[in-house]
Design brief:
It contains nine helices and no strands. It has helices at residues 9-22, 80-85, 91-101, 106-113, 117-125, 133-142, 147-156, 166-176, 182-191.
């Protein structure tokens, strides 16, 4: 797909800064623990004249805490049937609920999302339907969901927004900045060589 126009210089600059601040590629990992002072290294036993050298230690020690304590007892085991009877709301249920909450027609929502009627009909008729990530993102944009609502809807479909994916960082930028145009989002994804929604 070719776009006749490009991102405005202001949007491009703002998006560049956001990606630079939030995208963690495999080459560069932002470590928030950098401000933690280093733990003093114990003197090896050989240096202290005590024979065998101590085993190499980890850079950061992590205290192991029990998963369950006296104040938080371990939950009782339940059967698989019990667990399955308490499933959370599905992607389809949340999507239809959000359409109703926004007082929007189904057709308005799927047209804004760029989803065809047949696919929307499949989603509507199957409570367990699992869309592609791009479809779930398109509905987040079409419904003008907040970042928390978007993350929840994506989670219902089995996805997340990750800072290790440039696609996800761009989507997150658009939602946080309330830029709810699928066309404009696709233009940004295209300019950064990412798959379109």
């Amino acid at each position: 797909m070719l776009f006749k126009k490009s991102l405005s210089p202001d949007l491009r600059s703002s998006l560049d800064r956001y990606i630079l601040a939030h995208y963690e590629s495999g080459d560069t990992v932002v470590c928030e623990e950098a401000a933690i002072p280093p733990i003093p290294t114990p003197i090896p036993m050989q240096a202290a004249g005590m024979g065998k050298a101590a085993a190499p230690r980890r850079r950061h020690s992590v205290e192991k805490t029990p998963m369950y304590t006296a104040s938080a007892p371990m939950p009782q085991a339940c059967s698989l049937d019990d667990a399955l009877s308490r499933l959370d709301e599905s992607f389809q249920e949340m999507l239809l609920r959000k359409i109703d909450e926004k007082d929007m027609k189904d057709s308005t929502c799927y047209k804004r999302a760029g989803v065809d009627r047949k696919l929307f009909s499949k989603i509507r008729s199957n409570p367990q339907y699992k869309p592609k990530k791009s479809t779930a993102v398109a509905f987040c944009i079409a419904l003008e969901l907040s970042i928390d609502e978007s993350r929840e809807l994506l989670r219902k479909a089995g996805y997340a927004l990750s800072h290790s994916s440039k696609f996800d960082v761009i989507v997150e930028y658009f939602i946080l900045n309330r830029r709810y145009s699928v066309t404009e989002l696709n233009l940004a994804l295209y300019e950064y060589d990412q798959p379109l929604i």
